[in-house]
Design goal:
Largest sheet: 8 strands, antiparallel
Helix content: 10-25%
Distance between the termini: 39 Å
Strand content: 25-35%
Length: about 475
């Protein structure tokens, strides 16, 4: 039994889960469909507490919008923390679900840019217990489609982001802020509005851009056909190069070097058809892996389930609780399991029970690793958890697959791994156990101290291991049914 620590992937993968285009899908379902945990799960919310329509989702108030952005504020679900301090509903119950499943939260918030520092401080305090959360404020801020960019000049939007950075760095320094702004323009050799947003780029913890390989922006008000023009399809190689040059230009104009991510990326099947959508994303992911000088820290696949065709699944119009798998899902899942997009493992030494395990984040967590010798494809491969582990939630990894044990669960079946991975020769596979936050939260000792280790880490004592049942024959058969 060995103590290990996770390390970052060469390029981390995050997954969008809900937006103006779809509702949140629980993490157990995502695990079953993708067989692996992501680095982070992206949520999208909005905060305009001074508006008369607040706190309604704006599309429920305005029924006759001519486009997805023809509203007083963005049609994401309202963020009910902050001034209202409602911390038991969205997005907080989802953020807990994400972290309990061993993933980090990537939260996008569109915020009224006329709000003041005293309006942002409560949000920082709301998010402070969620560990190493990544926060993207007022994304695509050099565009003209979001409501905040119509309420204030671009310079005010930039200054607002700088103010938000200052607030979070003071009140919740465990949270990293993402600036998703203008990208490289080939004709000028500069970024869009780079002078206006220069200080914001310098203040941000992470640089970002949103870049689709194809997009039907007229959705849901029209259908993409050859007779209209509310869509576009781009050359994948040029998209990749544009993003790379954005990163290089940011280094040049700021004199800094920070992680670069793409916070929304996909090809829209409305434009390309579902088969080409899968091919385009596969080609982009291959370009990332072939890069001689890696520059992309992570990207977010937008999104898991979509009411249009921007998802690994599309929403069944007969029942929004059901998703219809698209060809892109199997293509993306294969790349997700590849070495390039998988977190690494550092061996820390031998382990004995009881043992304290630290959870810092999906790519900075301590766990236990066992070697399991597999002779052939088993009939049964199961984990049984003793009473002392019954009330714990655990992230379990076998080879490249992720499994989850929720609180109260005493049995986890690992056989699904072998449904897709037949064992023809004797081999050794790694079984790993991690202890994510037991309630989805960190519990710092102080509401104000920023040198508190528990802002960044939580600790769980593991006192026992599950019993492994590994058997190679059926319990009983009346006759042999195979040749």
């Amino acid at each position: 039994m060995t103590k290990i620590k996770t390390t970052p992937a060469k390029c981390s993968l995050d997954l969008g889960d809900g937006s103006e285009r779809a509702s949140y899908v629980n993490q157990d379902y995502l695990f079953r469909k993708l067989n692996k945990a992501h680095r982070g799960i992206s949520l999208m919310y909005t905060y305009y507490p001074n508006d008369k329509e607040w706190p309604n989702r704006v599309s429920t108030v305005y029924k006759d919008a001519k486009s997805a952005w023809d509203y007083p504020y963005e049609d994401y679900f309202p963020y009910r923390g902050g001034r209202e301090h409602l911390l038991d509903d969205e997005p907080f119950k989802y953020m807990k679900d994400i972290r309990m499943h061993g993933q980090d939260v990537v939260l996008s918030l569109t915020i009224d840019p006329t709000l003041k520092k005293e309006d942002i401080i409560p949000i920082a305090k709301d998010l402070r217990p969620y560990g190493r959360l990544l926060l993207r404020i007022n994304h695509e801020c050099t565009g003209n489609w979001f409501c905040y960019s119509r309420r204030a000049p671009y310079q005010q939007v930039a200054d607002f982001f700088v103010m938000c950075c200052d607030v979070f760095h003071e009140y919740a320094p465990n949270i990293k802020l993402i600036l998703c702004a203008g990208m490289y323009i080939e004709e000028t050799g500069k970024l869009e509005m780079e002078d206006i947003f220069l200080e914001a780029h310098k203040k941000a913890d992470i640089w970002s851009g949103d870049q689709y390989l194809a997009l039907h922006w007229g959705w849901p008000n029209d259908i993409a056909t050859k007779e209209n023009s509310n869509y576009e399809c781009y050359n994948v190689d040029k998209v990749y190069e544009k993003a790379r040059k954005t990163y290089l230009r940011l280094k040049e104009i700021t004199g800094q070097d920070k992680p670069m991510v793409l916070s929304e990326l996909n090809a829209d099947g409305d434009v390309t058809n579902p088969f080409e959508q899968a091919y385009m994303m596969k080609h982009f992911m291959k370009l990332v892996q072939k890069e001689k000088h890696p520059w992309l820290s992570a990207f977010t696949l937008y999104q898991f389930r979509d009411d249009g065709r921007l998802g690994l699944e599309i929403t069944d119009p007969n029942n929004k609780e059901i998703g219809i798998e698209q060809p892109i899902l199997s293509v993306y899942r294969k790349e997700l399991h590849g070495d390039y997009f998988s977190k690494g493992t550092q061996v820390l030494g031998e382990a004995t029970l009881p043992i304290d395990l630290r959870w810092g984040g999906a790519e900075d967590a301590e766990g236990i690793e066992l070697d399991v010798k597999i002779k052939k494809t088993p009939s049964f491969f199961e984990l049984y958890f003793p009473d002392e582990l019954k009330d714990m939630n655990l992230l379990i990894e076998f080879d490249s697959w992720s499994f989850y044990k929720a609180k109260g669960v005493t049995f986890v079946d690992l056989m699904p791994y072998f449904f897709e991975n037949k064992i023809k020769h004797s081999c050794v596979k790694k079984l790993k156990l991690f202890c994510p936050p037991q309630d989805g939260l960190n519990h710092p000792k102080s509401e104000t101290a920023n040198n508190d280790d528990l802002l960044y880490n939580c600790y769980t004592t593991l006192t026992a291991m599950p019993k492994i049942r590994l058997e190679y024959e059926p319990v009983k058969l009346a006759k042999k049914y195979r040749d």
